[in-house]
């Protein structure tokens, strides 16, 4: 008997130690990930330093024409020059507005259509084949046609972005509605929820995760639609800067535009992540929570 | 409240799941439906809940035909089916809220049932943060909070470990002593059925094989007189064909 109790206390002490160890680890992990999240800049810095060093080296050794790969320092100088005459700011503003408008309109329409398709079987029956028909057509193929139809104003650009956003978001949203666990719908019914309440309180929230995946996929596609639409018939925009730079062989200006495209994409992607964290705060699990490291 | 199942039958394609099922549940009665997996007990429960419709016969509550799910029949699922995007309290308040109670009133009802299952401390947690037993307690509280006439439970403790299962049985009995809800409880555990029920209905291959009244006073323990005997009798009913088949 005494032996049993002895082993029990030993076990208790052991568990206590483990617990203390665990909390210490947890604290370290939290501070670590917090630090990493706010300022994980080292990979970026390394990338640009390597680029700078390589370009500078190439300028001296002339492995290939140094004009083809200007160093970041030169890109910054040229960006400053572009900013001076106002083109850079105009382009950033118009590109951001176009992508924001197109993306939001595309998402809203996709969710709306997704709701209709999941609610009315006939709508799905008619829409699915049509969407399969037009879905795979790349934005680039549609652009000349859209320009002929709608001219070169803002509308055709936003339309093209919205269209590219619309299709993947729609596919994911419909899928989200279809994969709602039936026990959730059953329990809502048994608790007295009306069809409307079930839609708003059960179907919609459980389709949100897949909707956000769709939005993520679309974001990349809609950026290519943005740049493509600005390459034809535009007077400002990051795509316009690239085409303009090609015409005058100012390769560093191309890099300015390319870097800003990446930057705006990162900002939009971060906003989407923020939305995701806010809407899906109830979600737990994933690789990070599977094992403590 | 009086539930009546008359001559009910159900087929899925060629397969007959239920045939000629007659069952009556009186108000405040606790009835367990016991059987092997695949014997049709969950199908019967889903029909009573209104999720499935019978191919033959009829199901009546107080003389009225069951035509679909209703708030009068609360369900507790094996996979708990809590809404993962709502907190524990929001889950429990869901019923009163969709039934038209004000937000604060619904929350108050929610709190009251949260207290009943002893989880006040977890009101603002999400279901994913709870253990299996706690989730199931929330599931029971949620079903009870919309004050159903009959509580339907589909193997609610089936996915829990044996110790939690034991605790949940006691917990459920305690709640039943307090609220005296009419309960229909599906299980495949003989001891669970005898521990909980006033009456055990044994199902085999889609028909009701036998019924047993359990008169042992609560709180029941395994060593009480009559407990072991009841287990043996039910086991015999459940196993007799299997034994014959094995011999042949």
Outline the structure in words.
Chain A is an all-alpha fold. Helix content of chain A is 83%, strand content 0%. With 248 residues, chain B is an alpha/beta fold. Chain B contains seven helices and ten strands. In chain B, the strands form two sheets. Chain B has a six-stranded mixed beta sheet, sandwiched between helices. A four-stranded antiparallel beta sheet of chain B has the order 2-1-4-5, covered by helices on one side. In chain B, helix 2 packs across helix 3, helix 2 packs parallel to helix 4 and helix 6 packs antiparallel against helix 7. In chain B, 43% of the residues are buried. The chains are: A mainly alpha (293), B alpha/beta (248). At the A-B interface, helix 8 and helix 9 of A face strand 6 and helix 2 of B.
What are the SSEs and their pairings?
The complex is a heterodimer of chains A (293) and B (248).
Chain A: H1 2-38, H2 42-61, H3 72-84, H4 87-119, H5 121-134, H6 139-150, H7 154-178, H8 182-190, H9 195-231, H10 238-247, H11 251-279, H12 287-290
Helix pairs in contact in A: 3-11, 4-5, 4-7, 4-9, 4-10, 6-7, 7-9, 8-9, 9-10, 9-11, 10-11
Chain B: E1 3-12, E2 15-25, E3 30-34, H1 41-49, E4 56-61, E5 64-65, E6 73-76, H2 88-98, H3 103-116, H4 132-145, E7 150-154, H5 162-179, E8 182-187, H6 190-196, E9 199-204, E10 207-213, H7 227-247
Parallel strand pairs in B: 3-8, 3-9, 6-7, 7-8
Antiparallel strand pairs in B: 1-2, 1-4, 4-5, 9-10
Helix pairs in contact in B: 2-3, 2-4, 3-4, 6-7
Protein name (chain A): Sulfonate transport system permease protein
Family (chain A): Belongs to the binding-protein-dependent transport system permease family.
Membrane topology (chain A): Multi-pass membrane protein
């Amino acid at each position: 008997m005494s032996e049993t109790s002895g082993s029990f206390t030993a076990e208790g002490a052991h568990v206590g130690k483990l617990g203390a160890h665990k909390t210490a680890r947890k604290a370290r992990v939290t501070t670590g990930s917090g630090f990493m999240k706010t300022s994980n800049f080292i990979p970026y810095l390394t990338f640009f330093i390597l680029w700078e060093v390589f370009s500078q080296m190439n300028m001296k050794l002339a492995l290939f024409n140094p004009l083809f790969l200007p160093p970041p320092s030169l890109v910054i100088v040229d960006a400053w020059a572009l900013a001076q005459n106002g083109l850079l700011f105009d382009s950033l503003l118009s590109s951001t507005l176009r992508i924001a408008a197109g993306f939001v309109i595309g998402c809203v329409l996709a969710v709306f259509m997704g709701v209709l398709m999941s609610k009315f079987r006939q709508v799905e029956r008619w829409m699915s084949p049509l969407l399969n028909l037009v879905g795979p057509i790349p934005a680039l193929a549609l652009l000349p046609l859209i320009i002929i139809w709608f001219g070169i104003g803002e509308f055709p650009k936003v339309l093209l972005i919205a269209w590219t956003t619309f299709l993947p978001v729609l596919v994911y949203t419909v899928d989200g509605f279809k994969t709602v666990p039936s026990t959730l719908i059953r329990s809502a019914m048994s608790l007295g929820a009306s069809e409307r309440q079930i839609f708003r309180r059960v179907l919609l929230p459980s389709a949100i995760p897949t909707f956000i995946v769709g939005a993520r996929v679309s974001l990349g596609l809609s950026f290519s639609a943005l740049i493509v639409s600005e390459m034809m018939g535009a007077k400002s925009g990051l795509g316009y800067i690239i085409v303009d730079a090609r015409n005058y062989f100012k390769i560093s200006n191309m890099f300015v535009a390319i870097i800003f495209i990446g930057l705006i994409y990162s900002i939009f992607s971060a906003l989407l992540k923020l939305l995701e964290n806010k809407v899906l705060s109830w979600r737990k699990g994933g690789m990070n929570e599977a094992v403590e490291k | 409240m009086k539930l009546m199942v008359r001559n009910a039958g159900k087929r899925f394609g060629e397969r007959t799941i239920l045939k000629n099922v007659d069952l009556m549940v009186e108000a405040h009665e606790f009835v367990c439906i016991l059987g092997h997996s695949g014997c049709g007990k969950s199908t019967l429960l889903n029909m009573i809940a209104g999720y499935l419709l019978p191919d033959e016969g009829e199901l009546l509550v107080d003389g009225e035909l069951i035509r679909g799910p209703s708030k009068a029949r609360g369900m507790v699922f094996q996979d708990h089916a809590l809404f993962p995007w709502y907190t524990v309290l929001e889950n429990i308040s869901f019923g009163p809220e969709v039934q038209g109670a004000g937000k604060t009133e619904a929350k108050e009802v929610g709190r009251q049932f949260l207290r009943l299952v002893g989880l006040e401390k977890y009101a603002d947690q999400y279901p994913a943060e709870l253990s299996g037993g706690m989730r199931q307690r929330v599931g029971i509280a949620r079903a009870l909070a919309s004050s159903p006439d009959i509580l339907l439970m589909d193997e609610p403790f089936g996915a829990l470990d044996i110790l939690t299962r034991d605790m949940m049985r006691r917990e459920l009995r305690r709640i039943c002593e307090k609220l005296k809800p009419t309960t229909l409880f599906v299980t495949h555990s003989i001891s669970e059925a005898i521990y909980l029920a006033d009456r055990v209905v044994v199902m085999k291959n889609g028909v009701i094989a036998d019924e047993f009244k359990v008169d042992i006073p609560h709180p029941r323990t395994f060593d009480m007189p009559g407990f072991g005997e009841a287990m043996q009798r039910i086991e015999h009913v459940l196993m007799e064909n299997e034994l014959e088949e094995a011999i042949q």
